[in-house]
Amino acid sequence: MWEIRCFLKVATIKGVLRFEKKGKLSPRFVGPCKILKRIGSIAHRLILPPSLSVVHDMFHVSMLRKYVVDPSHVVDYESLEIDKNLSYEKELVEILAREVKMLRNKGIVLVKVLWRNHQVEEAT
């Protein structure tokens, strides 16, 4: 059986702060959620994640975004080693650049480092 999925816009739902983040860091969309039933031409009934269990399960189409099935959306969690405090230890792979910036009579060393589990574009 072919199932239709979509993302649900949660940024505009008042009183829903279930993601432990406020303001700009809060997620705009959650999902993908499975569409159970189309009601009329502008409403859909969804299967919601447990974090939205107190919200009604029927939404206007303006609150939904299309989900395109893509095998690259799968994340490999086994390669990440996460501590109990939900952080991971960064490990140096390579020093990409080194520069000495003069500030009055002091020299400040700036180093660009490539970390493990990061791409070259994300080097700091």
Structural overview:
The protein has 124 residues and is mainly beta. It folds into two domains: 66 residues, no CATH class; 31 residues, no CATH class. 0% of the residues lie in helices and 40% in strands. The protein has no helices and seven strands. The protein has a five-stranded antiparallel sheet with strand order 4-3-2-1-5, with no helix packed on it. The chain has a two-stranded antiparallel ribbon with strand order 6-7. A hairpin with a 3-residue loop joins strand 2 and strand 3. The termini are far apart. InterPro entries: SH3_Tf2-1 (IPR056924). This is Pol protein. It comes from Cucumis melo var. makuwa. Pfam families: SH3_Tf2-1.
Features:
124 residues; 5-stranded antiparallel β-sheet; mainly beta; 7 strands; elongated
In short:
With 124 residues, the chain is mainly beta. It contains no helices and seven strands. It has two domains: 5-70, no CATH class; 92-122, no CATH class.
Query: What share of the residues lie within helices?
Result: under 10%
Low-confidence stretches: none
Derived from helix and strand composition plus strand pairing, the structural class reads mainly beta
What does the main sheet amount to? 5 strands, antiparallel
The total strand number stands at 7
Distance between the termini: 47 Å
* Order of strands in the sheet with most strands: 4-3-2-1-5
Mean pLDDT: 74
Structural shape: elongated
| Total number of distinct structural domains | 2
What kind of oligomer do you see? single chain
Query: What is the CA-atom radius of gyration, in angstroms?
Result: 22 Å
**Annotation field: number of helices:** 0
Q: Which range does the strand content fall in?
A: 35-45%
List the secondary-structure elements in sequence, H or E.
EEEEEEE
Domain Tf2-1-like SH3-like: 7-68
Organism: Cucumis melo var. makuwa (Oriental melon)
Protein name: Pol protein
InterPro entries: SH3_Tf2-1 (IPR056924)
